[in-house]
Design a protein that fits this description.
It is built from nine helices and ten strands. The protein is of the alpha+beta class. The longest helix has 68 residues. The protein starts with 9 loop residues before the first strand and ends with a helix. It has two domains: 85 residues; 276 residues, Outer membrane efflux proteins (OEP) (Up-down Bundle). The strands form four sheets. The protein has a four-stranded antiparallel β-sheet. It has a two-stranded antiparallel sheet with strand order 1-2. A two-stranded parallel sheet has the order 3-8.
Length: 465
Amino acid sequence: MLLTVRIQPVFRSGRRVIPVGSPGATGFLIGFAMLAAGGALYAQSQAADAPTVIILEEAIRRAELNEPAFAAARAESGAAGQERWIARAGILPNAVYHNQALYTQANGAQNQAGQGVGAQQSPKFIANNAVHEYASQGVINETAGLGQMASIRRADAEAARAKAELEIARRGLVATVTSLYYGVAATENKLAIAERARAEASEFTSLTGKRENAREAAHADVVKAQLLQQQRERELSDAKVAAEKARLELGVLMFVDPRTPYAVVAETAATLPARAEVETSAAKNNPELKSALATVSVGNADVLAARAAYLPDLGLNVTYGIDAPQFAVNGPDNVRNLGYSASVTVDLPVWDWLSTQHKIKQSEIRRDAAKVALTATQRRLIARLNEAWSEAQAAREQLASLDSSVETAAESLRLTKLRYSEGEATVLEVVDAQGAFVSAENAREDGRTRFQAARADLQTLTGTM
């Protein structure tokens, strides 16, 4: 006797059991697969539509790639760096390979070329050496003088100034991006405040309507609540426009399409570096001061270049090759055409109608003006540092007071609404409490933005951002 046991897996759908292999089970599997695929596509679409989260450092990096003024400053700094190499190359010998073929009409006469060459036709132009003349020479020239050294010093100073100006442009861009970044966060928070205020005004309008129907409030309360709701709706519309404008302003610096959706992450920590640390960093890393120092160095180099006109320049020339009637190393009768020549030139300045003296005076006047600008930059740095520190410290101290004001205004609104529900407060008191709460929240956002801007100004001065 043979006993056969058949085991068949089943799916349980609710209270219904569906055997595997049956038409119902096949449909169930197909439907489950389609549901899973649809869920995956929905998740992918949600991920694609999600805005890009941009932190402040990423916003600054993107702005540095897209802002034209910063790009121009960076290009100027790079060009000034190349100018340094050009100035240094000016004091080194330069070499050229000179080739020339010259034909001059003959005058019909014969001249004795000498050196065993024999008689040759004479050219009509006395300045030319022969009817056919070929030159193939390597020429090395070198000019040495104080002017070349002054050019190198000036190029170095210009490169340092361009580098400092690039840092000034970068810090200015950082300050702009930081202000726009925290401005976007503030406008989004104010938009949320406006939405909550509109919803609260709508609830208050409903409450006054219910109290009117219950003969507990006059129709004037309903009218006042409706006016408040309409005002909140207008404020919400303005908040949406302000948030959109702030996002577009920052988007212009970050994206090819400024309408690209993104989200910002605003820092809420209210911390400041130590005063001594700020002063030390500002003294070492201030680009305005470095630019002023480089400008003075440029003035000194100009003075040196002007004084160099009193001294002679030494010129050296070495030529090696051929300059002969034949384009060949050896001429007729084995006369060797290949050879060299060298010359040394020294021109002594004697009289130039005092133009050199006036050029020196001119460069000294400009250098003295640069020194005045340097001292002014130092004074301005001290004043700006103290102003930025006082602003940041005052903004930080006010944050706690602003938070307390928001909590107090929220509690006042809650108590006033309870008193109004009990008939102990007027509609004007509720409206005033709602307005005070909204004003306190907006003031807190403005205070946060003020502190972030002040701290960013300090970080810009010290070069830590």
